[in-house]
C-alpha cells in the first residue's frame, strides 16, 4: 500500500524508489510503535517528507535542513519550506524521540541521500555476454 501511496512505479528496477519506500515504511512503523494517534502519524509522515524534500528538492545542506526542522518543530517563525510540523501535535518527549529518529534515519546518512538525489549515475549496460 505504501508503494501505491508514494506512486512508486519502478520499484523493482530503481534503487532510488526502493530506498524511498524503505525510508517511509520504516518511519511509518516506528510511529506506529510509538502509539501515535492518526493525526500524529500524519504529522510525523509530513515531517519525514519535509526533511527529505528539503534535501532532494531544495538541495539544502545538512545544517540548513536541521535549522528548518528546528523551526518546524518549535513553531518559531516561518520556515523556508511551506510545510512543517505542528508544535501542538506532539509532547516534548515525543518531539525528542522524533528528532532522535530523524538523526539516526536521515541525518547520519545525509551524504548518502545527497548522492542518491543529486549525483548522476550512468545507466548500467547489459549485454549478451
Automatic annotation (TrEMBL):
Pfam families hit by this protein: CLAMP
InterPro entries in UniProt: CLAMP (IPR032727)
Taxonomy, superkingdom: Eukaryota
UniProt protein name: CBCO1 protein
Gene field: Cabcoco1
Amino acid at each position: 500500500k505504501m508503494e501505491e501511496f508514494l506512486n512508486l512505479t519502478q520499484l523493482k528496477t530503481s534503487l532510488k524508489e526502493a530506498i524511498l519506500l524503505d525510508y517511509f515504511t520504516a518511519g511509518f512503523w516506528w510511529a506506529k510503535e510509538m502509539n501515535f494517534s492518526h493525526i500524529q502519524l500524519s504529522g510525523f509522515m509530513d515531517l519525514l517528507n519535509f526533511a527529505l524534500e528539503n534535501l532532494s528538492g531544495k538541495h539544502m545542506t545538512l545544517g540548513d535542513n536541521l535549522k528548518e526542522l528546528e523551526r518546524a518543530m518549535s513553531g518559531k517563525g516561518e520556515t523556508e519550506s511551506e510545510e512543517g510540523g505542528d508544535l501542538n501535535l506532539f509532547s516534548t518527549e515525543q518531539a525528542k524521540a522524533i528528532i532522535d529518529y530523524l538523526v539516526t534515519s536521515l541525518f547520519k546518512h545525509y551524504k548518502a541521500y545527497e548522492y542518491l538525489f543529486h549525483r548522476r549515475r550512468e545507466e548500467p549496460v547489459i549485454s549478451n555476454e
